[in-house]
């Protein structure tokens, strides 16, 4: 192989590794494991970054046919911090207040819901949380134990990962809105039953109508299949925008699945970059 080709190849490998490290850091991972035949090394991310930068400087010393470009996380010139957040500051308080009022009325209505047996076994109803003016709304499956105890969605381990995913695209948890398909915990964290979904779905539909997000993000099989009314597996649905009643909807893996399958974090990072870039376009 010609030297120039080797350098180009090396530059693209470095770029891929940097993107990967960036993603891991954003999702809160601080160690990566490098494996060679017969040798496994764990590196703290700052050390890994320093090593990569040393190699990169070395490769870049003799640029071939121009500068080596490493794709940056920010896809365009706009600050993601500003562009992705809510439109709340620009819109009138009355619209925000109106939404808060209507959401509160809906929550009160749901408090007395015993349409299915989960109303009897729940500790708390888990309504939804976040900014009523959110441009991005996440939909999960159902409360787990921690959520049932605290009455707030995504506060357990999966929730902590979701918070990191949100922060990875330059937002805070308080910028977005988070709700579930089911508002009460299925005992033992079993899967939601079809009849429970049917009975609970009107509440989620109402929440989406009130929030009016610019983008929805369905987390995992139950949210994706319910909102799209399909039986297709999440693996084939994820990674592209679908539509829910005219609202673009990204499908991605559920954070709880990611805790069990960390190798799929890169796919979720790809999906979330699409959401971030979509919101940046607005
Ligand atoms: N998993 C979900 O789908 N929702 C939660 O609120 C917590 C875990």
CATH topology of the largest domain: Uracil-DNA Glycosylase, subunit E
Q: Can you tell me the residue ranges where pLDDT is under 50 for at least 5 consecutive residues?
A: 58-83
User: What is the strand arrangement across the widest sheet?
Assistant: 3-5-4-6-8-7
CATH architecture of the largest domain: 3-Layer(aba) Sandwich
Going by CATH, the homologous superfamily of the largest domain would be Uracil-DNA glycosylase-like domain
User: Helix content range of the residues, please?
Assistant: 40-55%
Number of strands: 8
Could you tell me the strand content as a percent range? 5-15%
Describe this structure as you would to a colleague.
The chain is of the alpha/beta class and 282 residues long. The protein folds into two domains: 3-92; 96-280, Uracil-DNA Glycosylase, subunit E (3-Layer(aba) Sandwich). Helices cover 50% and strands 13% of the residues. The chain has helices spanning 3-26, 45-60, 80-84, 93-111, 118-121, 145-150, 157-168, 194-211, 220-228, 234-237, 255-260, 265-281; strands spanning 31-36, 39-44, 129-130, 136-140, 177-180, 215-219, 241-244, 247-252. Strands 3-5-4-6-8-7 form a six-stranded mixed β-sheet, sandwiched between helices. Uracil (URA) binds at residues 140-144, 147, 153-154, 156, 158-159, 180, 256.
């Amino acid at each position: 192989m010609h030297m120039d080709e080797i350098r180009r190849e090396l530059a693209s490998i470095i770029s891929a590794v940097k993107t990967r490290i960036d993603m891991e850091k954003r999702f809160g991972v601080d160690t990566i494991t490098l494996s060679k035949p017969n040798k496994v090394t764990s590196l703290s991310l700052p050390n890994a970054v320093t090593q990569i930068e040393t190699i990169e400087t070395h490769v870049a010393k003799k640029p071939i046919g121009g500068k080596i470009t490493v794709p940056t996380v920010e896809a365009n010139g706009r600050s993601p911090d500003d562009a992705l957040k809510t439109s709340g500051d620009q819109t009138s308080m009355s619209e925000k207040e109106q939404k808060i009022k209507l959401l509160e009325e809906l929550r009160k209505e749901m408090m007395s819901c015993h349409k299915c047996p989960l109303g009897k076994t729940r500790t708390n109803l888990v309504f939804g949380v976040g900014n009523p003016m959110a441009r991005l709304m996440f939909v999960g499956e159902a409360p787990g134990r921690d959520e049932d105890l605290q009455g707030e969605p995504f506060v357990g381990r999966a929730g902590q990962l979701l918070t990191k995913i949100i922060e990875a695209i330059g937002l805070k948890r308080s910028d977005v809105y988070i709700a579930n398909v089911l508002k009460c915990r299925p005992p033992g964290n079993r899967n939601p039953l079809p009849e429970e979904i049917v009975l609970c779905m009107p509440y989620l539909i109402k929440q989406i109508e009130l929030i009016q997000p610019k983008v929805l993000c369905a987390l995992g099989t139950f949210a994706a299949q319910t909102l799209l009314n399909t039986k297709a597996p999440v693996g084939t649905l994820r990674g592209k925008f679908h539509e829910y009643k005219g609202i673009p909807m990204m499908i991605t893996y559920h954070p709880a699945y990611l805790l069990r399958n960390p190798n799929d974090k890169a796919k979720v990072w790809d999906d979330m970059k699409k959401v971030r870039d979509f919101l940046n376009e607005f």
